[in-house]
Write a structure and sequence with these properties.
five-stranded parallel sheet; alpha/beta; 303 residues
């Protein structure tokens, strides 16, 4: 393909004199360019919402969200997937990521990996990708053969496929059930898609995982009630979440957490309803893990 025609490879007329700018002028320009990103993401919101709904459906059917990507986009996919465990108690059984060249590419370039479609296929086979899963391919230019190979394989299995890119007509568009194209124009540093394209991609991934987890019951109101308290900060956050959710003091929040094996969801339910741990757990099971529904269920049974 003619890479020179990709908008991500074009020169930005605003930064032609980047090498002559003062530091303040350069960072001011970058900031003004980044300010255009939210408007570009806004245009893609209907497509982002479609993919969110399909991801949530996949979770309910025992499927996963699987990212596959190349370069900066792939690294962002790995980052987003890894952060779902502490934030939502969602491990690789729900969200996982593969990057062209493997995890060593997180800090070392692996030449030519993104140009091999067969690597995309083999990476999906390695994790047992199946039709219940959702594949989201990540490539700023939409031209990575690694992503195209993975998308074609996933479609062959009957899985839902989506692509995230920063060009209007990516090469892998025909392999995507839904295309999320966030077109933000040329980079300040020509061709460096770790900049604006990377920021736009991260915004999209934040939406995909956060909102799909909300729809799967991992959030109560705007609180991360399924988070894993693995360090001092997160242990304190768990206490504060129970305090905020149930409008109780720290002492009572700590008491309910102790009674509930340090699990935030049942601690909130016990505080709000007066139920014991076993009853709270049973209600969560009956309501697919939604805290608000579990509270309503217990309170409704008492009327």
């Amino acid at each position: 393909m003619d890479y020179s025609k990709l908008v991500t490879e074009n020169r930005n007329p605003e930064s032609m004199d980047l090498d002559k700018m003062t530091s303040l002028e350069a960072v001011t320009l970058m900031n003004s360019m980044d300010a255009e990103i939210p408007a570009a993401v806004e245009k893609a919101l209907p497509d982002i919402a479609k993919v969110v709904d399909r991801i949530a459906d996949a979770y309910n059917e025992g499927g996963r969200l699987v990212y596959c990507g190349a370069g900066t986009s792939g690294r962002l996919g790995v980052l987003d997937a890894s952060e779902c465990l502490p934030t939502f108690n969602a491990g690789e059984n729900m969200v996982t990521a593969r990057i062209a060249g493997g995890l060593k590419t997180l800090n070392t370039a692996v030449e030519g990996a993104e140009d091999k479609s067969e690597l995309g296929v083999s990476d999906l086979k390695e994790i047992g990708f199946n039709r219940k899963d959702v594949l989201v391919a990540l490539s700023a230019s939409g031209s990575a053969a690694y992503c195209a190979g993975a998308l074609e394989y996933a479609r062959g299995l009957g899985a839902f496929t989506a692509g995230v890119c920063c060009v209007p007509s990516p090469a892998f568009a025909h392999l995507c059930d839904t295309l999320i194209a966030v077109v933000i124009g040329p980079e300040v540093l020509t061709g460096s898609t770790r900049l604006r394209s990377g920021t736009a991609t991260k915004m999209v991934l934040n939406m995909l995982t956060t909102v799909s987890m909300v729809k799967y019951g991992k959030v109560y109101k705007n609180l991360m009630v399924d988070m894993v308290p693995t360090n001092k900060k997160l242990i304190d956050r768990a206490v504060r979440i129970v305090m905020m959710a149930a409008d109780i003091d720290r002492c009572d929040a700590e008491k309910y957490l102790r009674q509930c094996d340090n699990r935030v969801k049942p601690a909130i339910i016990c505080s709000e309803t007066g139920a014991d741990y076993e009853t709270a757990e049973k209600a969560l099971g009956e309501t697919s893990g939604f805290v608000g529904r579990a509270i309503d269920l217990i309170n409704g049974r008492r009327k």
